[in-house]
Amino acid sequence: MKKASILGGLALSGIPALKSFAETTTPRHLMANDATRNWDVIVIGGNLAGCAAAIAAAKAGATTLLIESGDTLDDSSCQLMTIQNHFKNKTNSIYQGITENVLLDSADNQLKSGKIESWLPVSFVRLKNTYLSLLNQAGVNTLFDSRVVEVKKRKQGIVDSVIVAHNTAINHYKARVFIDCTSNAAVAAWAEAPFLEEGQIAKELFESEVSFVVGNIDYYNYNFCFNRNQQETAKVIEAISQSKEYPALKNLIFKNRLIHSSVIQFYTQYGLRDKFDSVKEKMDAKIIADQTLAAFREYFPETFGSAFLIEAASRVKRAVPLRIKGDYTFTIDDYTDRRSFLDEIGRNNYFADNGRSDTEHILYKENESHGIPYGIMTPVGLKNLLVAGESVSVDYRMANSFRQLPLCLTTGEAAGIAAARVVKMRHSDIRQVNIALIQRGLRKDDQNLI
User: Fold this and answer.
1) Could you give the angle at the alpha carbon of 192 between the alpha carbons of 402 and 9, nearest 5°?
2) Is residue 368 within 8 Å of residue 289, measured between CB atoms?
3) Is 405 exposed, middle or buried (0-12, 13-18, 19+ CB in 10 A)?
4) What is the pLDDT of residue 127?
5) Contact between residue 324 and residue 430 where contact means Cβ atoms under 8 Å apart
6) What is the rounded distance in angstroms from the CA atom of residue 184 to the CA atom of residue 193?
7) Is this model's pTM higher than 0.85 or not?
8) How many angstroms separate the Cα of 160 from the Cα of each of 41, 237, 421, 429?
9) Are 175 and 40 in contact (CB under 8 A)?
10) How many alpha carbons fall within 13 Å on the CB side of residue 233?
11) 427: closest CA among 392, 384, 375?
């Protein structure tokens, strides 16, 4: 994995990376600043978990660097994610701390107004502005258009630095603690962390998702024809999904929701394909959006006749990401038992879904929840690297639950607070940190714990 060809790229991260990159292909003058950047905490990935981790670490007093490969924060906009959770109102929301602050500001004011639904579209412009504001306030330093291309590791499981490629230079960045918030735990993989091996089972049980936004729909017909006659609408959509005229839509599951008076967000699911083909992912997302709009214009002209595509996800959201093997692996049994943990860093009540009819959509009753253990973020064999977000250590039946927006924010915040606590210790060991101090920091930010 570390020696993959630079031209072939590395499927795990979606970018070219190899150990000899900086040593053999980089002009010497670009290496002048090697090993000159030192931080308390480095967070890799400016997504949901990464922003929360960086904010929490900096607020706790750690000098923090956030490294993002793109030119903007939060890849939710690339996938057009939605919030799918069982909110009742602000007072009994399971997800608190940074998570609640972000949700209150990004869910189109529906949480504030009390108009709570289980499927809430995200206002991406507002979400990114929220992150920027919180990162600014916390004093986080951010690198955009910067990719980690190698991890330097000492013996005994200590990550020493990461090599980062910018547009004009390649530099080393050192830190006491690293937090991997990439969507596939790429940094942990370079550091030789083990992964859970459930790929084939997960491929059979889960589907991938594509989202896109359509504007200029007819509000009256959408509400009083398209949505009111749901059985007839479902029959037509079924016919569309089987149509040879629209092959990209074959066997798709369609969901949609009005997010403004004339704007709809579509959310489609389809079988997992070409797991590591990022180019095909982008093409799939575009083709599915284009064919869906064309089909709905044809079959529902009163509602979609004048509709147009506003924004399409730039990639497919895979239902089951690669996940590290942590000191603890959260299982479906933990979920069904509503288990709590001594090292708890948050609570969750998003449903479990493993795609099988006998256990699909295991739902909690109101006010039920389970604990989230710190051990799912600590990769086996590494002492100063935490993983937060969708690649935490959970079995394939819980992967969809733990990749949701509130869970990514929750594990991100906990990882940031934990990293800041580790920095204050003599030895940088994520397992030696006092969990009570992490929990104290979380409670200070009103996080929901037992």
Assistant:
1) 85
2) no
3) buried
4) 72
5) no
6) 12
7) no
8) 12, 54, 18, 13
9) yes
10) 18
11) 384
CA–CA separation, 348 and 95 (whole Å): 7
* Three-point CA angle 334, 338, 340, nearest 5°: 80
Lookup: tokens for 302: 């009163």
> Which of 279, 272, 379 minimizes the C-alpha distance to 14?
279
SS3 for 39-57 is: EEEEEECCCHHHHHHHHHH
Query: Which amino acid makes up residue 187?
Result: V
Average pLDDT over the chain, rounded to whole?
77
Alpha helices in 254-331 (DSSP H): 278-299, 301-304
Neighbours of 238 (CB within 10 A): 12
pLDDT digits (tens, 9 = 90+) for 98-157: 776 676 666 555 554 454 455 555 666 677 777 888 889 999 999 988 999 999 988 789
> 192: left (phi > 0), else alpha (psi -120 to 50), else beta?
left
394 and 350 Cβ atoms separated by less than 8 Å: no
